[in-house]
Design a protein that fits this description.
mainly alpha, 17 helices, globular
Length: 396
């Protein structure tokens, strides 16, 4: 009995190291990503340019994925992960001294290469170090570190940038990213895989058919969520709400509670019974944001969003990894993250264009931002429809 329990435990040294690594690199990444809109706005950027600058890292993240997918299954995931986080570190280091939009765009592209590889590699390595019967629970727990970092990072980045300036804040993020590199180098051990296929750039190796429908659903949901990460700080300021960064802190705290509980609940009653109400809650959170005019209302929306987007996306991703062969997990994870990258690119652009159009026709800026949140409920509803039509294939 003891031996069986030990085999079924998810808590091994590499999994713990991956949790720490994920927390550090996502914290550094989200700190820089969420003050970039404020930084370029202070440099004189328009709403459309702010949206492009916020999401343009997804261009290279998307471009690298068809080539990276086969590499994830053919070469050392650990070494590729180290190189990927190093690329993000370089971008973070130079953000604070860049004063022109072209230079910042180049840095965002470098950042995108790192993010495009680091996220699926970390997920694939985590699944490789989990028992087959505990992948869903393990991935839900692994995703907490990522989600908490991405939720705390914006509040920390905004607070630090207001107190010590942009350059020191970017340097703090760089230190965190260097720490992630050290954890990968000395704490992550890769499970030997004697069945690694040779590197070959083919459609079947770059994209996973098994992950196509989940990718579409995650794309639609992330399309809306990307606007939260890009415009929340600006919108809160327009509403006159101080400490808007607490939105992300409450969201993070909610994730710590909801992800393990809902992951376990999904194992017991089935994914559809959990995912459907969580998507509905995600849409509700955007309605609450559009109406919010005080910090308590924003924090209520954050709690609802944690139960919504924060809970359903890792369940969809975990199901993909649980139902593909181990030697294909890199390409399957990579395919899902293609949808995430595309959403991170398109979402802020769409929201930025909506805001500019509404202000151009005479709507006050704060009202234009409020209406943009309502518009972004549309892709959430579309994601729910796709899931309801295909849930038997997504959550088998």
């Amino acid at each position: 009995m003891t031996q069986t329990n030990r085999k079924e435990s998810i808590w091994n040294s590499t999994f713990i190291a991956l949790l720490i690594m994920s927390l550090l690199w996502n914290l550094g990444h989200s700190m820089s990503t969420n003050i970039i809109p404020l930084y370029v706005r202070d440099l004189g950027a328009t709403a459309s340019l702010i949206g492009f600058m916020a999401g343009c890292f997804a261009i290279t993240a998307l471009a690298i994925r068809p080539f990276a997918g086969p590499a994830f299954d053919s070469f050392s995931k650990r070494r590729l992960l180290l190189a990927s986080v190093a690329a993000i570190t370089i971008a973070s280091l130079f953000y604070g001294i860049a004063r022109s939009f072209p230079v910042l765009i180049v840095l965002r592209f470098i950042h995108g290469i790192g993010v495009g590889c680091a996220a699926p590699l970390g997920m694939a390595l985590a699944s490789d170090n989990l028992p087959a019967t505990r992948i869903s629970s393990g991935i839900s727990i692994y995703s907490i570190a990522q989600a908490v970092a991405q939720a705390i990072g914006p509040a920390l980045g905004i607070s630090l940038s207001q107190r010590i300036g942009y350059l020191p804040t970017f340097l703090v993020g760089t230190v965190l990213l260097v720490g992630a590199c050290l954890v990968i180098a000395f704490g992550v051990k890769e499970v030997p895989d004697p069945h690694r296929p040779p590197y070959r750039l083919t459609l079947g190796r770059s994209f996973s058919k098994a992950a196509l429908i989940p990718t579409i659903i995650v794309f639609l949901l992330t399309l809306a969520f990307a606007c939260t990460m890009s415009f929340m700080a600006i919108y809160g300021g327009l509403r006159g709400v101080e400490d808007i960064g607490l939105y992300f802190t409450v969201y993070a705290g909610g994730l710590v509670i909801t992800r393990p509980l809902l992951g376990s609940l999904s194992d017991r009653i089935g994914a559809p019974k959990v995912i459907v109400p969580t998507i509905c809650c995600f849409g509700l959170s955007f309605f609450l944001i559009s109406q919010a005019a005080s910090l308590p209302m924003f924090l209520l929306a954050a709690a609802v969003a944690a139960f919504g987007f924060g809970a359903c996306t890792p369940l969809i991703q975990a199901d993909v990894l649980a139902h593909v062969p181990r030697e294909s997990r890199g390409s399957a994870s990579n395919t899902v993250f293609m949808g995430i990258d595309a959403a991170n690119l398109i979402g802020p652009l769409v929201a930025g264009m909506v805001i500019e159009h509404l202000t151009a026709i005479g709507l006050p800026e704060v009202a234009a931002y409020s209406q943009a949140w309502l518009v972004m409920i549309i892709p959430i509803a579309a994601g729910l429809v796709v899931y309801l039509l295909t849930c038997k294939r997504v959550a088998r």
